[in-house]
């Protein structure tokens, strides 16, 4: 049953028990009663109190929004109304919102930037080069405000430095032995370009990643590079061989020189000994020439025949003499344990004595048989 129908006995949910007022209560009256419970004052006090609550809530939100954190590897650049104010270190910080603006900058990270392109060399060839630069931020303030876009500025400077160096280098040096020089020259040229801008960067490394000829002529360049590598390998092998052979040749030459010197000294000493011996022998020869001459002859013959096989044949009666195969007889008499001894022995000699008119009583004739 509705509250305003007959039989409801005037029970009004809005508090009108008499049933005379059929509408909802006045909102002003409700707020007036609510404000009276807090000391009265009417709607003016209520507006002030609501404004205070809004202000306190906004102040709390504003204070909490100013909390921020700077990481260990970062530094915070503080701007006050858009102007540089301070540089803060790592940790939990607070800033007045809408007054300060914080830009965190990582000063420990190694950043990379690449440059590549097709460039013209000094000898008017075309080469495709790719290079990478690694840098680190050392001054966050200069990095943010020295130039508009530091990364783009560094990229353009790298491209300019690389084209300058490639334009002053030949194709062969870029592809083979001159890569390190190109890398170092590019580093120096890039450092000279960015130094006047003072961008707060420090170059860590410049890496020469790739250098190749155009695809249309790449097989010919590959053959040329292979030939140069073979040439270098052959040169190294020849150098190693010369270093190995030269000491041996020097050693042999030194040995031959020492042997020649020793032979010279030996011959000189032997000659001096012979001269001294003949000098001592001269008085004896003058005293007894026949005996001395015979003794010299016998000593000489003893020295000659000391290493030869000899057969003495006395042929005083004259007549013909048949020679025996002395070499075969002597070879058959040698021991079997020395089969090669016959190749080292001297030729056999046959000595025949015949009558002579000198004082020795006979003449000795030496005949050399066939070996």
Automatic annotation (TrEMBL):
Residues 346-361 have a biased composition (Basic and acidic residues). One of its GO terms (molecular function) is peptidase activity. The keyword Acetylation does not apply. Residues 65-225 form the Band domain. Pfam families: Band_7, HflK_N. Residues 362-371 have a biased composition (Low complexity). Keywords: Hydrolase, Membrane, Protease, Transmembrane, Transmembrane helix. GO terms for biological process: proteolysis. Its main location: membrane. It is found in: Membrane. The chain crosses the membrane at residues 49-68. Residues 331-345 have a biased composition (Polar residues). Gene3D superfamilies: Band 7 domain. SMART domains: PHB. Residues 1-26, 331-371 are annotated as: Disordered. It comes from the Bacteria. It is a single-pass membrane protein. Belongs to the band 7/mec-2 family. HflK subfamily. HflC and HflK may interact to form a multimeric complex. PANTHER family: MODULATOR OF FTSH PROTEASE HFLK, STOMATIN-LIKE PROTEIN 2, MITOCHONDRIAL. HflC and HflK could encode or regulate a protease. This is Protein HflK.
């Amino acid at each position: 049953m509705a509250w305003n129908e007959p039989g409801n006995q005037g029970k009004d949910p809005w508090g009108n028990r008499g049933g005379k007022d059929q509408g909802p209560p006045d909102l002003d009256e409700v707020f007036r009663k609510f404000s009276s419970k807090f000391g009265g004052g009417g709607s003016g006090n209520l507006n002030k109190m609501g404004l205070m609550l809004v202000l306190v809530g906004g102040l709390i939100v504003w204070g909490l929004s100013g909390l921020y954190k700077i990481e260990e590897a970062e530094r915070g650049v503080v701007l006050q109304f858009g102007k540089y104010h301070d540089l803060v270190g790592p940790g939990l910080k607070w800033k007045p919102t809408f007054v300060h603006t914080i830009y965190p900058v990582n000063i420990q990270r190694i950043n990379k930037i690449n440059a590549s392109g097709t460039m013209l060399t000094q000898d008017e060839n075309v080469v495709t080069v790719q290079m990478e630069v690694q840098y680190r931020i050392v001054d966050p303030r200069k990095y943010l405000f020295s130039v508009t876009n530091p990364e783009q500025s560094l990229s353009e400077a790298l491209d300019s430095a690389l084209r300058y160096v490639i334009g002053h280098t030949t194709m062969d040096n870029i592809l083979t032995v001159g890569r390190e020089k190109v890398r170092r020259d590019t580093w120096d040229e890039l450092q000279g370009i960015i130094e006047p801008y003072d961008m707060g960067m420090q170059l860590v490394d410049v890496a020469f990643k790739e250098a190749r000829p155009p695809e249309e002529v790449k097989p010919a360049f590959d053959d040329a590079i292979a030939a140069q590598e073979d040439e270098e390998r052959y040169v190294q092998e020849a150098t190693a061989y010369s270093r190995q052979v030269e000491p041996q040749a020097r050693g042999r030459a030194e040995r031959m020189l020492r042997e020649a010197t020793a032979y010279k000294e030996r011959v000189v000493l032997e000659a001096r000994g012979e001269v001294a011996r003949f000098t001592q022998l001269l008085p004896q020869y003058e005293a007894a020439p026949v005996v001395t001459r015979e003794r010299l002859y016998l000593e000489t013959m003893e020295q000659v025949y000391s290493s030869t096989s000899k057969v003495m044949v006395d042929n005083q009666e004259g007549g013909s003499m048949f020679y025996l195969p002395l070499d075969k007889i002597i070879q058959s008499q040698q021991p079997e344990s020395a089969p090669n001894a016959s190749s080292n022995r001297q030729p056999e000699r046959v000595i025949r004595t015949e009558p002579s008119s000198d004082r020795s009583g006979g003449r000795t004739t030496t005949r050399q048989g066939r070996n």
